[in-house]
Amino acid sequence: MEQIDVAIIGGGVTGLASALAIAQRGLTVCVLEKHPRPGLETSTHNSGVIHGGIYYPAGTLKSKLCIDGRPLLYEFCATHKVPHEKCGKLIVATDDSEIPRLEKLFQTGVANGVDGLTMVDRAFISRREPNIRAVAGIFSPETGIVEPEALVNALRRAAEAEGAIFLPGTTLSGADTGSDGIELRTERETILAATVVNAAGLYADDVSKMLGGDDFTIYPVRGEYAELIPSKRSLVNALVYPLPHAAGHGLGVHVTRSTGGNIWFGPSVKYQDAKGDYESDRLPVEDFAEAARQLLPMLTVADLRLSGSGIRPKLHPASESFADFMIRRDTQNPRVIHAAGIESPGLTSCMAVGIFTAGLVP
């Protein structure tokens, strides 16, 4: 039986950044990933935005780890040559009735300590984004974009350089906790780990049950995207967001630019039962066109085509509006540490999440 200090279940950005931080402490660590490559689920099925930290309630892990993690992520990307850009973001009010909500959001961002936020007028918006319809906005100069797949691969290489072991195509099939640790059974071997980090994303609730841990529920929420056809990409220069949905389930259908130059609209918000269903009953492109025209009135259906989709691992049902990241020791099995419910701003926060998680390891 292989013995190790820490086993991490899940090879997305949360698991890999945790592996890096834990290995840097001098502990032995392995990452179990059921897929043949890392980061094939939520980590690479997203907008690739490096968030400023405007939206999240002050004092929450989402707020703290986003603001702490953003400069760490920029530094990591620069050091490891991960494609990224600090391009800035506008959050806009499309008519005067939205200005009070915009001002409230600005105060939330200031209270959270987000760097460089400014309230801007229509003239400022027109200079940056001449095709966007807006009467006022918030400009966040620290917001940016990153190539998620390149980030995942760089995190894996960095963790392995520190001695972490990555085990692709390795599914956890069972576990038993004893006096010496937790025996993790896979189809190839049994691993005895003193501590197990549950970074299993959409399947973190299932893994917790397997480890004899706390009972909680991950709610899979699909977000779909459309994209501008290549000849229309010049309509948008960077990132433009509407005000967040009042219900709190998303940030609205926003406009993002990828590091490769694609312009995406999305994501939508759809609670569903299946954790791996990215494609059934996709929204028609007409739905995106209607939402996109709130920001870009000149858009037609012919300017858009359907793009990818992703699934967020939410910790709250549709009837609630917010749940924080769950990064803590399990109450039933003290050898288990959860890094669960890591949805947006999880990509931005990943380096800080890894450090926070590593700090919980004995």
CATH superfamily of the largest domain: D-Amino Acid Oxidase, subunit A, domain 2
CATH topology of the largest domain: D-Amino Acid Oxidase, Chain A, domain 2
Structural class: alpha+beta
- Radius of gyration (CA) equals 21 Å
CATH hierarchy, class of the largest domain: Alpha Beta
* Quaternary structure state of the chains depicted: single chain
The SSE order reads: EHEEHEEHEHEEHEEEEHEEEEEHEEEH
Q: Helical region count?
A: 8
Sheet-strand content, in percent, reads 25-35%
- Integer tally of domains: 2
Distance between the termini: 22 Å
> What overall geometry do the principal axes of the alpha carbons give?
elongated
- Main pleated sheet: 8 strands, mixed
CATH architecture of the largest domain: 2-Layer Sandwich
How does this structure look, described?
With 362 residues, the protein is α+β, with helices and mostly antiparallel strands. It folds into two domains: 2-45 and 149-218 and 322-358, FAD/NAD(P)-binding domain (3-Layer(bba) Sandwich), CATH 3.50.50.60; 86-142 and 219-313, D-Amino Acid Oxidase, Chain A, domain 2, CATH 3.30.9. Helices cover 26% and strands 27% of the residues. The protein contains eight helices and 20 strands. The chain has helices spanning 13-23, 61-79, 99-112, 122-128, 148-161, 204-210, 285-292, 346-358; strands at 2-9, 29-32, 49-50, 84-85, 89-93, 118-121, 136-140, 144-146, 165-167, 174-177, 182-185, 190-198, 219-228, 239-241, 254-257, 263-266, 270-271, 304-314, 326-329, 336-340. Strands 1, 2, 9, 10, 11, 12, 19 and 20 form an eight-stranded mixed β-sheet that branches. Strands 13, 15, 16, 17 and 18 form a five-stranded antiparallel β-sheet that branches. A four-stranded mixed β-sheet has the order 6-7-5-14. A hairpin with a 5-residue loop joins strand 15 (254-257) and strand 16. It is elongated and about 65 Å long. The protein starts with a strand and ends with a helix. 48% of the residues are buried.
